[in-house]
């Protein structure tokens, strides 16, 4: 594809959740590869900034909470609005960034001057592929790149200390994260607990990670307080996942965090098309796309005879998937 523009700097804008941010980082990786010499920035939120800072493809991480953020944004030549919101589109327009790229299908898309005509609502592609397509107005045509994160040495060191206190050796355990941000149907707490019991019976150690508001759930899954790692900074959590043999969880940011640091990640997904593994599965490990054996559906109803369909996936099936990958 012929390159139409050659900006010297590119600001990627994604101000939603951790998993969404991680699946956007391949845009930075592709820009670095195909636009030689370009400076890449990433506009996010305070709580996702430590994740962005682990990407070797991002030169500068900015947050919308900074007092002088509009002034800082005005220095960039081009911006890509990955997750379209009216507030972010208006911010790009007001700061006068010359090239403003985003979807053509929002009522406020007139605030952008380089548009991509692609609907995401049909979810025929993975989120990474949709994100990469936003580089097309800059002459970059890429369909797939896995996100890559590098855990800082100090975070890895602290992760090792936490595992030592839990009497767990690095690379000899499975990480389980049963909490979900609510963006998709979760597996039941009972299923996560059953999986933990199967792992224990087979002599495989595990730890259960939990964020704010998830401690009670984590303790239920773990069968007590032992082996629960609660409310650690995100880079230390990344270190724990980096040191694990495998990760199991729902469709959540922690799954993509584990996947991006190179750990085989296994996610339990519903068959609702817009939240399916086809759209949101772990990038590196397609064996970790675990869903019920049902056709994709367009709407999720509590009256559905399969609701919640995620619970049709058995703990034994997940255990076998993990063992197969670890054995390979």
Please give the CATH class of the largest domain: Alpha Beta
Count of separate DSSP helical elements: 13
Averaging pLDDT over every residue, what do you get?
95
Largest sheet geometry? 6 strands, parallel
The structural domain count equals 2
Say what the CATH topology of the largest domain is: Rossmann fold
User: Any low-confidence stretches, pLDDT <50, length ≥5?
Assistant: none
Tertiary shape: globular
Helix content: 25-40%
- Per DSSP E runs of 2 or more residues, the count of β-strands stands at 12
> What is the CA-atom radius of gyration, in angstroms?
20 Å
- Class derived from helix and strand content: alpha/beta
Helix-strand sequence: EHHEHEHEHEEHHEHEHEHEHEHEH
* Beta-strand residue fraction: 15-25%
CATH H level, superfamily name of the largest domain: Glycogen Phosphorylase B
> What's the assembly state of these chains?
single chain
CATH architecture of the largest domain: 3-Layer(aba) Sandwich
Placed side by side, the strands forming the largest sheet appear as: 3-2-1-4-5-6
How far is it from the N-terminal to the C-terminal residue, by CA? Answer: 39 Å
